[in-house]
Amino acid sequence: MTGQRPPYAGTRYPKIKDVKGFTDFIATGWGTDPVPAAPVAGAAEAAADHRRRLSERLPGETLVVASGSAPTRNDDNAYPFRPDSDFVWLTGCQAEDAVLVMTPRPGGHDVRLYLPPPFRPGETGFFGDVNHGELWVGASPGLAEWADALGLDVEPAKHLDDLDIKGALTIQTTDAAFTAAHGLEPSALLDRHLSVLRMVKDAWEIAQMRLAVDATVDGFAAVAREIPRAVGEGLGERWLQGTFDRHARTHGNGTGYTTIVGSGPNAPVLHWVRCDGAVLPDAALLLDMGVEANSLYTADVTRTLPASGAFSPQQREVHDLVEKAHRAGMAQVRPGVPYLDFHFAAMEVVAQGLHDWGLLPVSVDEALSPPGQQHRRYLACGIGHHLGLDVHDCGHAEYEEYMGADLEPGVVMTVEPGLYFHAHDLTVPPELRGIGVRLEDDLLVTADGAEVLSGALPIDAAGVEAWTRARLKEAP
Q1: Where are the beta strands (DSSP E) in 402-462?
Q2: How many CB atoms sit inside 10 A of residue 179's CB?
Q3: Among 128-132, 202-206, 240-244, where is mean pLDDT lowest?
Q4: Number of neighbours of residue 123 by Cβ within 10 angstroms
């Protein structure tokens, strides 16, 4: 090599922007075909109605909702970006570092979306900004394309600096530096209103939920077909977790939450996301999985499968009790019924079953009373939750608006009783230790009852066994 060494020779670029030969050459010779913004079909129209509903609840208030930024994973690497759910609900947009501002006017709000424009060829950011430079992230839609796609006025993010929005209501996830610069405080009132509004899904949202659930049901089949490899080749729980995650990424945006795959003694662990155990051939296999659709609405479904295709007598006994509780809970999901009735109905079945097995130190009535709850040792979690853009949707509503409300058409929720007998729990007989069973379905409250969106998967033990054996026979 002859001549001087260049001032830039590695993966970092603090000086390359000052090298004239490089900057002159990289600024020219690029195509300029515009890239359209492509929100999910119908998202922009649904979001416009969502904004209208929010505007009616908070007249006279300036509202600021941000999409957020990808958090740092390590050093200069970030986690994949997933926008804030409230922001998506209000805009249909999934862009990073975007901010929606709703300014009050007589009869409603003026709405503007602020976005960082992509850095095009000729701009230093084209090669110098790893988040928005097209050399790094690929060709991206510009502000005009976003405006056309969303039906919104869209301005560059830097124009936010010119706004006087002190005192506006904003959400908890809005960037701390931004809120500090504009004198904003996260508003529990705005969070609460958004949660309440999101509880009842409109027709477009329900269609998205159906897509997510249907893709999830297919994902269960894909996982079940891989059980023989997970067992026979020693690939274990993580192979099955990866199978579903790949399916979710192929048929949607990804998973709506971290996939749970628990075999044998790992099945009773409520959030077993490590998935680093073996898939035991004679054990029950708990699968809690959900595809997040491209619109970001997610499913949340659980089944407990016999890895061999047949439950042992003890596994089946546990499954039968959970099924009985599941059916009791689902029977309470209908309009006009207090939300928590499904929870209490399922818990009564569980408590009675555990008492019949001799596992409760008190009577059923004592266990179900507020000071008791001894049965919750084997079922410490709740029996269900709202479902939507978040797997535990609408969580910032007040208690009386969530737990204390009556169900109404358009609510989408889960019912998920289970029994979890840990391998080291000495209060249960040895033959039950290491058995964990959960059944979880996604239900839509209709005008006269409920529709089980995930009903394509069986819930009775015999049906689960037959379904599993059929998938095992399809194994590659």
Answers
A1: 412-415, 418-421, 435-438, 441-445, 450-452
A2: 18
A3: 128-132
A4: 16
Q: Do 417 and 348 form a contact (C-beta atoms < 8 A)?
A: no
Distance of alpha carbon 150 from alpha carbon 41, whole angstroms: 11
- pLDDT of 173 strictly over 70: no
Residue 469 in 3-state DSSP?
Answer: helix
In angstroms, the CA 92 to CA 97 distance is 14
pLDDT band at 324 (very low <50, low <70, confident <90, very high): very high
The two beta strands, 63-66 and 169-170, are: parallel
Among 13-17, 82-86, 124-128, 346-350, the range scoring the smallest mean pLDDT is 13-17
Report how far residue 63's alpha carbon sits from residue 171's, in angstroms, rounded to the nearest whole number. 9
In whole angstroms, what is the distance from residue 286 CA to residue 270 CA? Answer: 10
Residue whose structure tokens are 């009869």: 107
**Three-class SS of 272-317:** CCCCCCCCCCCCEEEEEECEECCCCCECCEEEEEECCCCCCHHHHH
414 forms bridges with which residues in the sheet?
Answer: 442
Q: What is the dihedral of CA 70, 74, 77, 79, to 10 degrees?
A: -40
Residue 405 CA to residue 407 CA, distance in Å, equals 7
Q: Which residues pair with 255 in a beta bridge?
A: 291
Which residue's structure tokens are 């089949």? 221
191 touches 171 (CB < 8 A): yes
The whole-angstrom separation of Cα 288 and Cα 360 is 27
The partner residues of 440 in beta bridges, in order of sequence, read 302
Asked whether 238 and 275 are in contact (CB, 8 A), the reply is: yes
Q: Is the pLDDT of residue 12 over 70?
A: no
Q: What is the pLDDT of residue 1?
A: 52
pLDDT tens-digit map of 114-171: 999 999 998 989 988 887 889 999 999 999 999 999 999 999 999 999 999 999 999 8
Q: Which of 297, 240, 249 is nearest to 272 (CA)?
A: 240
Condensed to tens digits (0 to 9), the pLDDT of residues 136-149 reads 999 999 999 999 99
Q: Name residues whose C-beta falls within 8 Å of residue 371's C-beta, 6 or more positions apart in sequence.
A: none
